[in-house]
Amino acid sequence: MKTSQPPLLMHKKSNRVRQTMRSTLLLALVCIGASGYANTVDKPLGFEAVFAEKGQPEALHFTSTFRVDGMDHKLEVWRLHDEHLKRVTDGTLEVHVERKSGDPEFHMTVMDRKKNLLTEIDRTNLYQIGNFTDWFDLAHGIKHPMGPYQLARGSKPVGMPAAVEPCDWFDLKQGPATTHICWSGKNKLPLLIGAQDGQLLWQVTQVDRKPIVKKAFEIHDAGFIRNNANDDIAHD
């Protein structure tokens, strides 16, 4: 059942939605602006060519840990084809993303299970509030760097843990920052991501390619307060 907001609060809702979405998406949407350094003289590589989604498994389920602002978090993801996606961060932030195959546009539902708050938003309006997130970022755990970059084959940095499955190391540089990425071509997913200072930023701890039924992507929102961010942004 949808819960309406008191009329006196409606004029403040857009700013509140923006603030909520920005803080929530930091954890709910893992979009690491990867960068790295070419340690060899190999021919420069393109991001889309190396981190391609073509040939991805029809279904993928994985768990991972990641670090944001010095704090560790847990993420679980279910991916079905290129149309259905479910992400759960720390067991409390649940994100559902749906789209038509190949369509850059998507519809997102963000559920904060601590606050019983559900927010709906489309990709276009995510861009409106300054969150430049695409399907690839959400489904593959890595974001295309903005601006110039250099990408080349790399090697496992000292101190990095072993990956759960075979993967290939790449170094990607943007400005002075360096990020080391161990990419699984089989899963179309980074299994390890490390910073140039040796800090582990991302680690997939379990992955499988078992069939996933569409029922797994159903939204159970009984008792949630609902916000439609699309309406709020449209009336700004």
Summarize the structure.
The chain is of the alpha+beta class and 236 residues long.
Structure, described:
- The structure is a single chain.
- The chain is α+β, with helices and mostly antiparallel strands and 236 residues long.
- It has a single domain (7-234), classed as outer membrane lipoprotein receptor (LolB), chain A, CATH 2.50.20.10.
- The protein has helices at 13-28, 47-50, 123-128, 135-140, 229-234, and strands at 59-68, 71-80, 84-89, 93-98, 107-112, 117-122, 150-153, 168-174, 177-184, 189-195, 200-208, 225-228.
- Strands 7-8-9-10-11-1-2-3-4-5-6-12 form a twelve-stranded mixed β-sheet.
- A hairpin with a 3-residue loop joins β3 and β4.
- It starts with 12 loop residues before the first helix and ends with a helix.
- The model is unreliable at 1-14 and 30-41 (pLDDT under 50).
SSE diagram, text form:
Blueprint: H1 13-28, H2 47-50, E1 59-68, E2 71-80, E3 84-89, E4 93-98, E5 107-112, E6 117-122, H3 123-128, H4 135-140, E7 150-153, E8 168-174, E9 177-184, E10 189-195, E11 200-208, E12 225-228, H5 229-234
Parallel strand pairs: 6-12
Antiparallel strand pairs: 1-2, 1-11, 2-3, 3-4, 4-5, 5-6, 7-8, 8-9, 9-10, 10-11
